[in-house]
Amino acid sequence: MRIVNKETIFFDLDHTLWDFEKNSALAFDTILQKHNIPVNVPDFVTQYVPINLRYWKLYRDGNINQQELRYNRLKEVFDILEYTVEDAMINTLSQDYIKHLPLNNHLYDGAIEVLEYLAPKYDLHIITNGFQEVQDTKLKNSNIQHYFKTVTNSELAGCKKPHRCIFEFALKLANAQKQTSIMIGDSIEADIQGALDFGLDAIYFNEFNNETPTNIKQVNHLLDLKNIL
Predict the structure, then answer these.
(1) Predicted model pTM
(2) 167: nearest Cα among 7, 5, 10
């Protein structure tokens, strides 16, 4: 079924267009070697992925600040791996990770093709909870920034998805109307339910085919968007 009467598309960035997990693993491989931390990188990344998601939820909900997010997610991984790292080194690793993360530029399969397909038909924009400097570098290094007319991040908006204020901010910045706009993202809570609660239509990028309420529009591959938009 095609979605009609839309003029504006808002994309999430991480885990939707930009392959966060692949790029993150490459960054950790670089910085752990650089600082001679003798842990197994795949083991480290396996632990980091769910821990990072949990800390991002705490950050999104306003329960921790940016510094706590960046420090605690690494500290917890090292604790699980039973490898002792001084606080100063954890802070150094945290800073190096943020520096190296956006230097990698792997996108999800089909990302460029679907953006090329959508760009002539719709106004494209980004809404991200990521930090402005990091997200801007990701967009530039992956060579997709030119597809998007505006980029709304949580620092700019002063609030984070799923709160309605970031969607309201993004609509105003894009000079878009709610009824002719749609949000596409990978997080049911932050992207999809947040948008729907605001009254904005949404499509769930369900990469792992998670069980989803039947009333939620979804795709399992980015190229599936060509069939409905």
Answers:
(1) 0.95
(2) 10
